[in-house]
Amino acid sequence: MKRIVIFASGSGSNAENIISFFREKPDTTVAAVLTNKSSAKVLERCDRLGVPAFYFNKPAFRDSDTVVQLLKGLQADLIVLAGFLWKIPSNLIEAFPDKIVNIHPALLPKYGGKGMYGDRVHQAVKENKESETGITIHYVNENYDEGAIIFQAKTDVVPSDDANSIAQKVHQLEYEHFPKVIAKLLS
């Protein structure tokens, strides 16, 4: 049985999509969801879906091996960042080499780096009059959004799009592709 642990900071729509996808797969499970926000909506989703969820604070994440030990205890085969906004510390990357993946709401290397997430990315795509955007699934390294690219999918951006409509197009790509890419990585 392959075991996924998801890190999320927000509403958890991608986390729920991944959990639902793998409920149909007998050889893989989402072992837990971890969050850095005690008020994150993802915790409500986990409660409703019956998935264990854990909150951790900055010192547990950055200044100790608490989160690494939790992940080892959960026997994580793959760590999936789904809307998780903190930079991953080196001790976690070293403990799980090539086992941490992230999804970014743009076609990296464009619109990546510190502070580029969510609506900020979509607004920048609109302001720069891009004709396309999309998603990038990549391995996590010690720098924001610079790990090796695993997969990209594109969508058109038309002049009438605003940041919200761009976000909707990107979310559809996330929901369609992220679970399938995770499954492929685990096979």
Automatic annotation (TrEMBL):
Pfam families: Formyl_trans_N (PF00551). Keywords: Purine biosynthesis, Transferase. It is an enzyme of class 2 (transferase). CDD domains: FMT_core_GART. One of its GO terms (cellular component) is cytosol. GO terms for biological process: 'de novo' IMP biosynthetic process. Its EC number is 2.1.2.2. Pathway: Purine metabolism; IMP biosynthesis via de novo pathway; N(2)-formyl-N(1)-(5-phospho-D-ribosyl)glycinamide from N(1)-(5-phospho-D-ribosyl)glycinamide (10-formyl THF route): step 1/1. SUPFAM superfamilies: Formyltransferase. It comes from the Bacteria. Residues 2-182 form the Formyl transferase N-terminal domain. It catalyses: N(1)-(5-phospho-beta-D-ribosyl)glycinamide + (6R)-10-formyltetrahydrofolate = N(2)-formyl-N(1)-(5-phospho-beta-D-ribosyl)glycinamide + (6S)-5,6,7,8-tetrahydrofolate + H(+). One of its GO terms (molecular function) is phosphoribosylglycinamide formyltransferase activity. InterPro entries: Formyl_transf_N, Formyl_transf_N_sf, GART, GART_AS. Belongs to the GART family. This is Phosphoribosylglycinamide formyltransferase. The gene is purN.
